[in-house]
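[Discussion] Sanity-checking designs against the backbone

I'm trying to build intuition for which residues belong where. Below is a C-alpha cell string of 683 positions. I'd appreciate it if someone posts a full sequence so I can compare it with mine line by line.
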C-alpha cells in the first residue's frame, strides 16, 4: 500500500512543535498515518458491524447487503487459505467502503490485522476483468496479504511476544513488492475461477517486455516509475508463484512463506526458496516463469507508442477525427483530438483525471472521469467537450463511467455498491449482473454490451427502445473475458476475448458468425473501426501501450462455448450485527521502550505507543518517561479525530525537562516546559 505524504501533512499539522521534542513517538505516529492514508474512508456518521467467527465487518447502513456478501466471501476465503497457510492472529477487521469510484483494496498487519475493500467493480479496467465475482477476487487478494504479512517465526515471534505488533517487526513486510503482491495474485487465481495470473493482461505485458529486451529481474521487478510502474510487481510476482506451484507442487508456496517468516535477514528471497523447495537457480526460474515464448502474428502499423494507459481510440462519426488518451509519463494525462490519418498532429487536447472513458456524440466528446465531490468522496462524473473547445461538467456525484455513444444515444454505466447498471431506458438494476461498456449502434437503435452474470462474461444485444422482459439476446459467451464492444459501419460488432492466451479482436455478424480478425503478437484491445474497413487497436510494446492500425484478417472462428457452469455462491455464515465499536481495533497493540539522556535534567526511560481504529476515526500517540535519578516525569500525547468528517480535530500536549543554562557557580539548571495545542483542520 502506497502512502500519501500530503495526507499525512494535512492531518498532523498542529503537532509539529510536539514532534520536535517527541521524535520517537511522532515517527511512529507519522508512519501510522502514512500507512493508512490510502485506505482512509469517511469515518463520520453511522457505521455498523457484522461479527462472524473470524471477522468484524464494518459498513454503513446503506451497504448492509454488500457487507453480508463480503462477510460470506471473507469466511469462504479464510477457510480455503487456512488449508494452505498458517492462520493469522486475532479477529480481522474488514471495512467495506463506497466512498471511492475505483476498484481497489488495502491491507495492513499493524496495529492489528485489517483491510479495506472498495465496493466499486472494474467496469473497464483491462487488468481486473477476469473474475467470477469481483468481491470474491478482491477479498481473497487482500486476505492473502493478512495471512502472509501476519506470519512471524523465530526471533521476530519472540520480539512480538514481548513488544506486541510493532511496525518493523513483521519480517514478510521486508520482502520485495513483487513477492507480497505476487503471492496475493497467485492465491486470488488459485482460490477463485478468475484472477490475474490466469488472465491475458499480464501475459501481454510480460511478452512484450521479453520480446523488446525489457524483461525485469527479481531485483528490478518493483513498482518503479518507469513502465510498467506499479503493475510490474503484480505481473511478475503472480506469474512466478503460479509457476512455482505448477512445477514444484501446491505446497511450495506455503513452504516458502514459512521459511521467509523466520529468517534473520528478512528481505532475502533466494535463500528461503532454496531451503523450502530446493530451488538453487532462483534467477533462472524467475526468467522462465516470467518470459513467455516468442509470439507470432501481424502487428500492424505503429501510430503512437510508449503510453502509460490504454489510448482507447474513438473515431468520429464522419471518420475524419480520432480521439485518444495520451498518457506518456511526461505530464498529466491528456485527451487528444487529431485528424485521421495524421494522429500525431494534435488539433486540441485537454487534461483528464483517472479512469477516463469517452466517445463521440455527434461532434462532441462525452467524457467520464474521477473527481472529488467532497473531502472524502471521489466520484466518476460526466463531462462534455464541445467543438469550440469548451469543457463542461454535466453531472456531480452521478457515478457515471464508461461513456459510449451512437447516433443520438448516450450510454453510460452507473456505479452502485458492489455492482453497476447500464443507464438506458428499461434496463433493470439487477444485483446479480455487472456490466462492462454498452455501445449504441451508429443509428442509436440497438445496444450491444459486455455483461457479467453467473460468474461469466457474455456479449449481449437488445433494442434501445425497450429492454426485453426476458433479458437481452446472448450473442457470444466466454469462459475468460468479453470486453470493448464497438460497431462497424456495415452493422457488425467488434469485441475482445482471449484467443490462445492473448486478447484478440473478434467480429460478430448478424448471421451469428464470430471470427477472429486480429493476430497481434501481444494481443489487441479497444478496437475502433475506420470507414475503409480497417481498424485501430491498442496493444503493448516494451515501453508501454501502443496505438496501431491494421487491416482485419479473414481469421478462424472464435472459440465457441454453448454453456458454462453456474457461479458457486459463498455459503451463508453465522453473524450478529451491532453498532460500530472503535475500541477493539483502537486499543494499544504494542509498546516501544524509550531512553533519553537529558544530562543534568535526568536520564529518562519509558514507553511509547500509537494506534488507530479500523475506520481511522481516531488516531493517537502516547509517550511516558521517568527519570529515577531526578524523580522527574516527562510525557505527552497527540490525538487526531475525524469523527466530524470535516473539520479534523488535532489535539496535543506535552511536559518535558530541558537545560536552561549554567549559573555563576557552574551549576547546570534544568526546567520543566509544558506545551499544548488544540486546533481544527478544514479540507
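Best answer:
Here's mine. Compare freely.
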Amino acid at each position: 500500500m502506497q502512502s500519501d505524504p500530503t495526507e499525512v501533512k494535512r492531518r498532523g499539522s498542529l503537532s509539529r512543535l510536539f514532534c520536535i521534542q517527541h521524535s520517537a513517538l511522532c515517527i511512529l505516529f507519522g508512519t501510522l498515518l502514512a500507512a493508512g492514508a490510502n485506505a482512509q474512508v469517511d469515518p463520520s456518521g453511522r457505521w455498523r458491524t457484522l461479527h462472524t467467527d473470524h471477522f468484524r465487518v464494518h459498513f454503513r447502513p446503506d451497504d448492509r447487503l454488500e457487507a453480508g456478501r463480503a462477510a460470506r466471501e471473507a469466511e469462504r476465503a479464510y477457510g480455503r487459505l487456512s488449508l494452505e497457510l498458517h492462520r493469522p492472529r486475532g479477529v480481522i477487521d474488514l471495512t467495506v467502503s463506497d466512498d471511492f469510484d475505483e476498484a481497489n483494496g488495502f491491507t495492513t498487519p499493524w496495529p492489528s490485522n485489517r483491510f479495506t475493500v472498495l465496493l466499486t467493480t472494474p467496469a473497464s479496467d483491462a487488468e481486473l476483468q477476469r473474475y467470477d465475482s469481483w468481491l470474491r477476487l478482491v477479498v481473497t487478494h487482500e486476505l492473502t496479504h493478512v495471512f502472509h504479512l501476519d506470519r512471524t517465526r523465530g526471533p521476530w515471534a519472540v520480539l512480538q511476544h514481548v513488544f506486541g505488533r510493532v511496525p518493523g517487526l513483521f519480517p514478510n513486510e521486508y520482502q520485495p513488492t513483487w513477492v507480497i503482491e505476487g503471492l496475493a495474485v497467485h492465491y486470488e487465481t488459485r482460490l477463485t475461477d478468475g484472477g490475474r495470473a490466469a488472465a491475458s493482461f499480464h501475459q501481454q505485458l510480460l511478452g512484450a517486455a521479453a520480446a523488446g529486451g525489457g524483461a525485469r529481474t527479481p531485483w528490478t521487478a518493483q513498482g518503479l516509475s518507469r513502465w510498467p510502474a506499479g503493475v510490474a510487481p503484480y505481473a511478475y510476482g503472480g506469474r512466478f508463484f503460479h509457476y512455482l506451484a505448477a512445477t514444484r507442487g501446491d505446497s511450495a508456496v506455503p513452504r516458502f512463506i514459512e521459511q521467509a517468516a523466520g529468517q534473520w535477514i528478512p528481505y532475502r528471497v533466494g535463500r528461503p526458496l532454496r531451503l523450502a523447495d530446493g530451488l538453487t537457480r532462483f534467477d533462472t526460474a524467475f526468467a522462465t516463469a516470467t518470459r513467455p515464448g516468442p509470439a507470432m502474428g501481424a502487428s500492424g502499423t505503429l501510430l503512437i507508442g510508449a503510453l502509460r494507459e490504454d489510448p482507447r481510440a474513438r473515431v468520429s462519426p464522419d471518420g475524419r477525427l480520432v480521439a485518444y488518451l495520451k498518457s506518456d509519463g511526461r505530464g498529466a494525462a491528456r485527451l487528444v483530438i487529431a485528424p485521421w490519418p495524421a494522429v500525431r498532429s494534435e488539433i486540441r487536447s485537454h487534461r483528464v483525471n483517472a479512469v477516463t472513458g469517452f466517445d463521440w456524440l455527434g461532434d462532441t466528446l462525452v467524457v467520464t472521469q474521477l473527481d472529488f465531490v467532497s473531502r472524502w468522496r471521489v466520484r466518476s462524473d460526466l463531462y462534455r467537450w464541445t467543438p469550440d473547445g469548451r469543457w463542461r461538467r454535466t453531472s456531480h456525484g452521478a457515478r457515471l463511467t464508461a461513456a459510449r455513444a451512437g447516433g443520438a444515444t448516450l450510454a453510460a454505466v452507473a456505479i452502485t455498491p458492489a455492482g453497476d447498471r447500464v443507464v438506458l431506458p428499461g434496463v433493470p438494476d439487477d444485483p446479480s449482473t455487472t456490466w462492462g461498456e454498452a455501445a449504441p449502434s451508429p443509428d442509436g437503435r440497438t445496444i450491444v454490451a459486455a455483461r457479467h452474470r453467473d460468474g461469466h462474461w457474455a456479449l449481449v444485444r437488445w433494442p434501445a427502445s425497450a429492454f426485453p422482459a426476458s433479458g437481452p439476446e446472448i450473442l457470444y459467451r466466454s469462459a475468460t473475458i468479453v470486453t470493448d464492444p464497438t460497431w462497424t459501419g456495415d452493422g457488425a460488432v467488434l469485441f475482445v476475448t482471449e484467443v490462445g492466451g492473448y486478447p484478440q479482436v473478434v467480429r460478430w455478424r448478424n448471421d451469428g458468425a464470430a471470427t477472429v480478425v486480429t493476430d497481434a503478437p501481444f494481443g489487441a484491445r479497444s478496437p475502433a473501426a475506420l470507414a475503409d474497413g480497417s481498424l485501430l487497436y491498442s496493444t503493448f510494446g516494451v515501453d508501454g501501450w501502443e496505438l496501431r492500425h491494421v487491416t482485419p484478417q479473414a481469421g478462424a472462428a472464435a472459440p465457441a462455448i454453448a454453456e458454462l457452469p453456474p457461479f458457486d455462491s459463498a455459503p451463508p455464515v453465522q453473524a450478529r450485527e451491532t453498532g460500530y465499536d472503535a475500541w477493539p481495533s483502537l486499543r494499544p497493540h504494542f509498546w516501544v521502550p524509550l531512553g533519553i539522556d537529558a544530562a543534568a535534567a535526568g536520564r529518562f526511560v519509558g514507553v511509547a505507543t500509537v494506534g488507530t481504529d479500523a475506520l481511522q476515526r481516531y488516531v493517537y500517540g502516547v509517550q511516558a518517561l521517568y527519570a529515577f535519578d531526578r524523580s522527574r516525569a516527562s510525557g505527552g500525547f497527540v490525538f487526531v479525530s475525524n469523527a466530524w468528517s470535516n473539520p479534523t480535530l488535532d489535539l496535543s500536549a506535552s511536559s518535558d525537562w530541558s537545560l536552561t543554562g549554567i549559573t555563576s557557580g557552574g551549576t547546570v539548571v534544568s526546567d520543566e516546559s509544558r506545551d499544548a495545542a488544540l486546533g481544527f483542520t478544514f479540507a
